[in-house]
Amino acid sequence: MFVLVEMVDTVRIPPWNFDRQLNEAVAEELNKKLANKVVYNVGLCICLYDITKLDDSYIFPGDGASHTKVHFRYVVFHPFLDEILIGKIKYCSQEGVHVTMGFFDDILIPPESLQQPAKFDEAEQVWVWEYETDEGAHDLYMDQGEEIRFRVADEVFVDTSPTGPTAPASNAPAQPGQATAPQVEESGEKKEAPYTLIGTICDPGLGLLSWWNS
């Protein structure tokens, strides 16, 4: 679930931190920059593990801060495929069951990966597993807050780096005295998560059976 990733970065230390130990100041700046952030194709950064090497520091003209190339290892949340994790149901939607692990919320179990047969209850906004027994079918509701075990089936990284402004609809210059039309801002566009885990529910003996026994 958690891995150590070797990284290299140039850390800027402002002048008011020159009285501190270099390792301490560098560690604070690295955690400010990376903690609780997703690095593309790496995972969710948790905290600094250690610093393995500090190169010479430099002060550039026009900038009173020092710049130090740092080699370090960082604790990263990046489960391997087929790893079994435990989370809690955050909410359900037509897209599937959304799961949280407390520190990481972007986990989705799509409908085809739920225990079958399953149906979505529009009134309750929950997925229901129609559990078959000798006495007939029993509806097991996947309620918010219920603990669930799932297997990591896939992962999706999305590059959310800022992009430049969109090109105007027309390149024709405005005539003298002609007002230019304001650009229409796109609203309602769903923001994509930078890192999403796609899961599948494990056998009921690993997770959902607790609902049946309760």
UniProtKB/TrEMBL annotation:
GO terms for molecular function: DNA binding; DNA-directed RNA polymerase activity. It is found in: Nucleus. CDD domains: RNAP_III_Rpc25_N (cd04330). SUPFAM superfamilies: N-terminal, heterodimerisation domain of RBP7 (RpoE) (SSF88798), Nucleic acid-binding proteins (SSF50249). Residues 172-183 have a biased composition (Low complexity). Residues 83-212 form the RNA polymerase III subunit Rpc25 domain. Residues 161-192 are annotated as: Disordered. GO terms for biological process: defense response to virus; innate immune response; transcription initiation at RNA polymerase III promoter. It holds the Pfam family SHS2_Rpb7-N. It comes from the Eukaryota. Signal peptide: none annotated. Residues 9-64 form the RNA polymerase Rpb7-like N-terminal domain. Keywords: Antiviral defense, DNA-directed RNA polymerase, Immunity, Innate immunity, Nucleus, Transcription. Belongs to the eukaryotic RPB7/RPC8 RNA polymerase subunit family. DNA-dependent RNA polymerase catalyzes the transcription of DNA into RNA using the four ribonucleoside triphosphates as substrates. Specific peripheric component of RNA polymerase III (Pol III) which synthesizes small non-coding RNAs including 5S rRNA, snRNAs, tRNAs and miRNAs from at least 500 distinct genomic loci. With CRCP/RPC9 forms a mobile stalk that protrudes from Pol III core and functions primarily in transcription initiation. Pol III plays a key role in sensing and limiting infection by intracellular bacteria and DNA viruses. Component of the RNA polymerase III complex consisting of 17 subunits: a ten-subunit horseshoe-shaped catalytic core composed of POLR3A/RPC1, POLR3B/RPC2, POLR1C/RPAC1, POLR1D/RPAC2, POLR3K/RPC10, POLR2E/RPABC1, POLR2F/RPABC2, POLR2H/RPABC3, POLR2K/RPABC4 and POLR2L/RPABC5; a mobile stalk composed of two subunits POLR3H/RPC8 and CRCP/RPC9, protruding from the core and functioning primarily in transcription initiation; and additional subunits homologous to general transcription factors of the RNA polymerase II machinery, POLR3C/RPC3-POLR3F/RPC6-POLR3G/RPC7 heterotrimer required for transcription initiation and POLR3D/RPC4-POLR3E/RPC5 heterodimer involved in both transcription initiation and termination. NCBIfam families: rpoE. This is DNA-directed RNA polymerase subunit. It comes from Austrofundulus limnaeus (Annual killifish).
